[in-house]
Write a structure and sequence with these properties.
The complex is a heterodimer of chains A (about 260) and B (about 110).
Chain A (H helix, E strand, L loop, with lengths): L8 E4 L3 H13 L5 E3 L12 E5 L5 H10 L4 E6 L7 H6 L4 E4 L4 H12 L5 E6 L2 E9 L5 H15 L4 H22 L7 E9 L2 E7 L26 H8 L2 E4 L5 E7 L1
Parallel strand pairs in A: 1-2, 1-3, 3-4, 4-5
Antiparallel strand pairs in A: 6-7, 7-8, 8-9, 9-11, 10-11
Helix pairs in contact in A: 5-6, 6-7
Chain B lengths: L1 E7 L2 E10 L4 H13 L4 E12 L1 H16 L3 E5 L3 H9 L7 E3 L2 H7 L1
Parallel strand pairs in B: 2-3, 3-4, 4-5
Antiparallel strand pairs in B: 1-2
Classes of the chains: A alpha/beta (about 260), B alpha/beta (about 110).
């Protein structure tokens, strides 16, 4: 991937020995990391890869997601004392972890994974075409950040107006809500995966969950008078009404939406 | 999303600020049902500060409307922007709810 050399790497740790060591190991792999002590020094940075010391707690993970968006890959730095924070951090979209003391091979492995585009959460950008691949825990509170990321990319590269802010936003939201609520049954250990291809005039996005799937032909039409008073069953209908094409895989645990501007 | 509830005479006005979606819909439902249990009967939900409702948000409104009606009360909606109106029309929920353009029009209608 040609753009790996320009990947922006940030190390956020208040422990000088940790950041010094990590920077040294990353530089050996050809990365040029910048170092800050904590979130108060993040402004002005927008890394593609963030090494975040969990010593300061998991609140910084959420802050990093908010500050840097969903396309920033986060690797948590964990030691014995902060180990209990790792699970909540992973649930909050941390893509990977590194245990302290740092090991040269392990650091190298994280960097290789990132630079080959196989990290946990990432965006690949190039010219007028963009692929976004995101994987995240089955938690409804992560939905809006994920949707906003894709809609913003759509407005930048594919099309804008109500087709982006209404059709894509709602259709994608329904596909994701289905994956989290019904596919993965809100099990935070199960992941939802989005793959979006954006090019001028068109967005193709696939949402996959780890559930057993369902038969989309067996969902009742919510607009029939006898069904209008039901409090459930509008998601799939909205998705089909708002997207130009909707395809399910055979099992029914992945749906592909095509939207055109 | 946040929402505020205030009383205007015998009408309970709920202002939804932000998105009514799968992650927060239960909070709205619980608060309105609490008011219903305490005896409030006329409800106005104002969406002037809201840009987005998903299918589960729509589901909560349907469920609230039913419960309020069963208790002998009334629910009106107001302030839907163009996108929200489209969603109500697509799902034919515009036939189920009484929807006013503005809060003032909805209040006058009770």
């Amino acid at each position: 991937m040609a753009e790996t050399g320009t990947s922006k790497v940030l190390v956020s740790s208040a422990r000088d020995d940790v950041s010094r060591n990590l920077v040294r190991l990353l530089k050996q792999r050809g990365a040029s990391p910048e170092v800050v002590r904590d979130s108060s020094e993040w402004s002005g940075h927008s890394p593609d890869l963030l090494f975040l010391d969990l010593e300061r707690g998991t609140a910084e993970v959420r802050a990093a997601r908010e500050a840097f968006g969903i396309s920033c890959e986060i690797v948590a730095l964990v030691d014995n004392r902060s180990f209990e924070r790792l699970l909540p951090a992973l649930a909050a979209c941390v893509g990977d972890d590194l245990f302290l003391p740092l090991n040269r091979e392990e650091v190298g492995l994280r960097w290789e994974r990132h630079s080959s585009g196989r990290g946990g959460t990432r965006a690949r950008r190039g010219g007028l075409h963009e692929d976004i691949v995101l994987e995240f825990a089955s938690r409804p509170d992560l939905l809006q950040a994920v949707i906003s990321e894709v809609v913003e990319a759509c407005e930048r590269l594919a099309f804008s107006g109500p087709r982006a802010t209404l059709n894509l936003r709602v259709a994608l939201g329904e596909a994701l809500a289905n994956a989290i609520l019904y596919g993965n049954r809100q099990d935070p250990g199960k992941r939802v995966r989005i793959q979006a291809e954006l090019r001028p005039g068109e967005v193709v996005v696939t949402v996959a969950d780890e559930g057993e799937g369902f038969d989309p032909s067996r969902v009742a039409d919510p607009t029939l008078p006898e069904n209008r008073g039901r409090s459930h069953g509008r998601g799939l209908f909205l998705l089909r009404s708002l997207a130009d094409e909707v395809r399910f895989n055979e099992v029914g645990n992945a749906v592909t939406l095509v939207l055109r501007g | 999303m946040s929402f505020s509830i205030r009383d205007d005479g015998e009408i309970t006005i709920v202002n939804v600020d932000g998105e009514l979606i799968v992650g927060n819909r239960q909070e709205l439902k619980a608060n309105v049902l609490d008011r219903l249990e305490r005896g409030d009967r006329k409800f106005l939900i104002d969406f002037s500060d809201s840009s987005y409702i998903d299918s589960s948000g729509l589901g909560v409104l349907v469920s609230l409307s039913k419960k309020i009606r069963e208790a002998g009360g009334a629910l009106r909606l107001a302030g839907l922007n163009e996108d929200l109106r489209t969603l109500f029309e697509l799902t034919k929920l515009d036939t189920l709810f009484q929807i006013a353009d503005t809060r003032a029009a909805a209040l006058a209608d009770f």
